[in-house]
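Appendix B, example 12.
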Amino acid sequence: MQRIGILGGTFNPIHYGHLRIAQETAEAFALSQVKFLPAAKPPLKTEPKVTAKQRAEMVQLAITTNPLFSLDTRELERNGPSYTIDTLESLRAEHPRDALCLIIGTDAFTHFDQWYRWQHILDYCHLIVVSRPPVADLDLSETLRKLLQMHQTHDATQLSQHTHGLIAMHAVTALDISSSQIRSLVHAHQNPAYLCPDVVISYIQAHQLYTDNL
């Protein structure tokens, strides 16, 4: 059984926070690989002004030297909103016997019960919720607290013994970096060095991204 990490997002642009989360989670849960899945039309966010193709190309540039990481463009190739459940159904068809591990942040988890068909997501994957504050400090709905009580595991090895259905919390290095911060710096003609890989910065400059709008 492989353990496959899935890290979705707009990646507008990808930065070291994304990359560090993927690396630490892969090591902590012995993941065979981590798939980066840029969203074409994120259902709960405004659609990015930078094209999906450009965001995917920045991801590929950022991850190309890490053999654990790969780019998966299936959400860019679908019409309509990029619903996670559709992606998981597709991945499960390709990996029927592997453990799929969806990596999300605590901010996303606090709104998990607003996701499309959220009740079925654990039928296809495990959740790895990467956290900075302790879970007790999270502002969770009663529905999500009950979900945690039913599905949370404190034993990372459990994710290797089941293909889906568990929730694990994982503390990660707190890198205070955001894509909006990088966009604002570029828009203000300031250098976003050390916030994202140099190859991504070069791509942003070459294509004049984020200069006219954020």
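The chain has eight helices and six strands. The chain has a mean pLDDT of 93.
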